[in-house]
Design brief:
The chain has an 8-stranded antiparallel barrel with strand order 14-15-16-19-20-21-22-23. Helices cover about 25% and strands about 35% of the residues. The two termini are about 50 Å apart. A hairpin with a 7-residue loop joins strand 19 and strand 20. It is α+β, with helices and mostly antiparallel strands and about 500 residues long. It folds into 4 domains: about 100 residues, no CATH class; about 130 residues; about 60 residues, no CATH class; about 170 residues, Porin, CATH 2.40.160.20.
Length: about 500
């Protein structure tokens, strides 16, 4: 019974879907400092998967059933081509149909995949050879998709690619559906055998990446690998995942570097677009790579950039998104610091003004509408060693206190609004009651420095208030009270 219960509980736990971690793609050459990673995680709401330029340049594109379906479509076209081969005037249609299905193949995972691709190319090349007389093939527009250029000649591209992909294969007449095109094939093979090889530089690929060219793993100990001129399939294996699929064109006698799907210049352009407020103004190569990353990872995708130390991060959906500006901002604030209270109201002043050092703190609320702000709060000044004596509520005895409460409200303007994670600046005028007996005009200047992306600022506030008369004064009597303060604290956006 207990075992059955435990099994049931375990099954129910496994049935609960895991929450996919959010993904942050940084438009930087490498991941930034740890503090920026933590800020980004605060903005996206939890631990995140952080990706940088390497993942953009070689995005994860795992081998799936869809790849098998594409290869199956190639096999089906080859079978159809063989079935109708002897019909009249079908060669151009066969070549075109095979071109459509072969164009969708972007990865050769292993030698078996490669052989199926090559078999289709051999049939396509035979169809091209029969479809076009020599002069028409070299000059005609209809033959353009099936031509390739090598030093000194225009040649049958499907055959060129087939030979480039399998340089060691012993081709026979039976590989070409029928023997008619065989002399042309042999002539091309001899022509290509006389060309120098090309080279692929693999030295700048990511460390730890397994490089696969034409279904074979490349020896990374060698800087360059030798390849026949023509088209080749390349991908890398990173973290056991097929990544960075692409086709390469290798030219005779030349060395080529593995092209990154997204180069440094494209990352810079995406960075600039994001900082300017757009998640849609990215180069096409960046969007293609982001789409591949989004397909692979199940968590929400975000893009991030640094602008002079300021973090800019936005969700990415593949469409143009301009961040919505907050119309209303609401901040709760808490600050503490010190200052001075100047008044002849202090005991023992004999009518002279006493400047009393004070500890000063307060809680407040700021409601911003665009750049305008309504604010209010409650401050407390504590003047140790200096007291004010006044009657209690019932006027039955005197009370001496060094704790001076200050309730206030006001209006102001945000020079820099707290609508995003950047520095803020507030200038405000206030009016309030300064205990125990003054109605005071005041003002304050507050600078906020963001400490996370969730809407929290470290604040520095300078302010003060002034009242020339006490509520206890009568006639021409004046007992002023003036305050100055400097406080440090925090503001949090709701």
């Amino acid at each position: 019974m207990h075992r059955a219960l435990i099994a049931l509980l375990a099954a129910s736990l496994y049935a609960i879907p895991a929450i996919a971690a959010p993904v942050v793609v940084w438009f930087e050459s490498d991941l930034p400092e740890e503090k920026y990673l933590r800020r980004a995680e605060s903005a996206v709401g939890g631990d995140a998967i952080h990706l940088s330029h390497v993942e953009l340049a070689f995005p994860p594109q795992p081998y799936t059933d869809a790849d098998d379906d594409r290869l199956e479509a190639v096999r089906a076209e080859v079978i159809e081509a063989v079935a109708i081969w002897d019909q009249f005037d079908v060669e151009f249609g066969i070549a075109t149909s095979l071109e459509v299905v072969l164009a969708k193949i972007d990865v050769a995972r292993d030698r078996r995949n490669l052989e199926e691709i090559v078999d289709a190319l051999l049939v396509q090349g035979a169809a091209v050879s029969r479809a076009f007389p020599l002069t028409e093939f070299r000059e005609g527009d209809a033959a353009e998709p099936f031509r390739a250029t090598v030093p000194g000649a225009r040649v049958n591209r499907p055959w060129l690619v087939a030979m480039a992909l399998t340089p060691d294969r012993n081709f026979t007449r039976s590989d070409l559906v029928d023997g008619g095109p065989w002399p042309d094939f042999k002539e091309l093979r001899e022509q290509l055998n006389g060309l120098p090889p090309g080279y692929l530089d693999v030295s700048k690929l990511p460390r730890g990446a397994i490089v696969v060219v034409d279904g074979r793993v490349v020896d990374r100990s060698e800087r360059e690998t030798e390849l026949r001129p023509g088209t080749h399939f390349l991908h890398v294996i990173r973290n056991d995942v097929v990544s960075g699929r692409q086709r390469l064109e290798i030219e005779a006698g030349l060395s080529a570097e593995v092209p990154m799907l997204v180069d440094v210049a494209m990352v810079g352009a995406a960075n600039a677009a994001l900082v300017a407020g757009s998640t849609g103004g990215f180069p096409d190569s960046v969007k293609t790579s982001l789409d591949a990353i989004d397909d692979y990872h199940s968590g929400d995708l975000h893009v991030a950039a640094l602008d002079g130390g300021r973090l800019v991060i936005q969700p990415y959906s593949g469409e143009f998104v301009r961040p919505k500006k907050r119309v209303v901002t609401v901040l709760g604030t808490g600050e503490i610091g010190g200052g001075i209270v100047m008044s002849p109201l202090f005991d023992g002043s004999d009518g002279d003004t006493i400047s009393a050092p004070a500890a000063h703190g307060g809680l407040g609320l700021e409601i911003g509408i665009f750049n305008g702000v309504i604010l209010g709060g409650f401050d407390l000044a504590f003047t140790p060693g200096n007291t004010v004596t006044h009657g209690n509520r019932d006027e039955t005895e005197n009370v001496s206190t060094s704790v001076l409460p200050q309730a206030w409200g006001g209006i102001g303007v945000y020079v820099l609004r707290p609508s995003e994670a950047r520095a803020t600046l507030l200038i405000a005028g206030t009016y309030g009651w300064n205990g125990p007996a003054h109605k005071a005009l005041g003002g304050r200047l507050t600078l906020g420095v963001p400490i996370d992306e969730g809407g929290t600022w470290f604040r520095l506030t300078v302010g003060g208030s002034t009242a020339n008369k006490s509520m206890w004064d009568t006639g021409n009597d004046e007992t002023p009270m003036h305050t100055l303060f400097f406080r440090l604290g925090f503001g949090t956006r709701f």
